[in-house]
Write a structure and sequence with these properties.
Length: about 325
């Protein structure tokens, strides 16, 4: 006998005409685990999620739960919850009515429905607001109702497709933290689709990076950030420059890696530092999100970017010192 296995996806393919949306993907999601599907628009992540839900026909492969093949199981019998970008709430129902809908369909007695609805509204931060019309709610409040509705029947798997992408940045960042807390508190098994790196890293136990219908890397967030599988993954994560360890050492940086390794750099991989070992000439500077981005010509390395805290004002041709972040990203082959 074996314990619960959770979701199993094996060699799954989804096509639309001549387009291969999902290309022989295999992925496991263990009970209680949150896995984020991360990739650019059109990479196939939503098609994969919809195929898992049973909303898209598959060309090949299999989807299973606890080892049982779901090929002949319709959407409404899979025991999966769904939450989409627009929430898809019932406009004619109040918040409680939306959350209650699935429980009513499942045949729960009224007292149990009321108890469960109250429990879920409190969980998502809407305690006492069950009688409010969802039409009067903000976008963030509506997504909280949608989450409560999806969780109400206690789904064995929750499928979330870009649930926060329509919200403004500040609200999205706040709800990311709330959603992370709720999924952990309820022990919910979830497959979470997003194109936002920070959202995926904050939300998931593991991140699956997709491109052109294929999985490029599946690992814990820290591992993906510090050890991208290849240059394509690194570029998607925002790394723009790739410099050999030997070149960095020759320029004065201290790098804990093999001589033949390659370091992936972002603008914030290099920092303005009075005692930094790298010497550079400022080409131009621009302020963005709490700091200054510097375009610099680094001695021995060429043109790169660096970051300085605050609204640092540096004129072109200023000579500055830079330091390399201690935990740099290394491509395969590094020690």
């Amino acid at each position: 006998m074996t314990g619960p296995q959770g979701l199993g996806v094996r060699d799954l393919s989804v096509t639309f005409g001549q387009t291969q949306a999902v290309d022989h993907v295999s992925l496991d999601v263990a009970p209680g685990e949150v896995v984020a599907l991360l990739g650019p628009s059109g990479c196939g992540k939503s098609s994969l999620l919809r195929a898992v839900a049973g909303l898209e026909p598959t060309r090949a492969g299999a989807v299973s739960w606890d080892g049982d093949d779901l090929a002949d199981v319709p959407v409404h019998r899979r025991g999966f919850g769904l939450m989409f970008q627009d929430g898809q709430l019932f406009a004619h129902r109040d918040a409680a009515g939306n959350v209650e809908f699935g429980l009513r369909m499942a045949g729960l007695a009224k007292p149990e429905r009321r108890r469960r609805v109250g429990e879920l509204l409190e969980l998502v931060g809407l305690d006492g607001q069950g009688r409010r019309s969802v039409a009067t709610m903000s976008g963030g409040e509506q997504q909280r109702v949608a989450l409560a509705r999806a969780l109400a029947p206690r789904p064995r798997l929750l499928l979330l497709d870009e649930p926060l992408s329509s919200l403004d940045r500040a609200l999205r960042e706040r709800l990311t933290g709330d959603l992370h807390r709720i999924l952990r508190r309820t022990g919910t098994t979830a497959l979470y689709v997003t194109h936002d790196h920070d959202e995926a890293f904050a939300m998931a136990h593991r991140v699956a990076v997709m491109a052109a219908g294929r999985l490029l890397q599946v690992a814990e967030p820290r591992q993906i950030w510090q050890r991208p599988a290849d240059e394509s993954v690194a570029r998607f994560l925002g790394y723009r420059w790739f410099v050999g360890v030997r070149a960095l050492r020759a320029a004065g940086a201290d790098v804990d890696a093999a001589d033949d390794a390659t370091v992936a750099l972002r603008a914030d991989s290099l920092r303005l530092s009075a005692g930094g070992p790298l010497k550079a000439v400022v080409l131009d500077a621009s302020f963005s999100r709490g700091g200054t981005t510097l375009r610099v010509d680094v001695e021995g390395l060429g043109e790169l970017e660096a970051r300085a805290f605050g609204a640092t004002e540096l004129a072109p041709d200023a000579v500055v010192a830079l330091s390399l972040e201690p935990e740099v990203a290394l491509l395969p082959g590094a020690v």
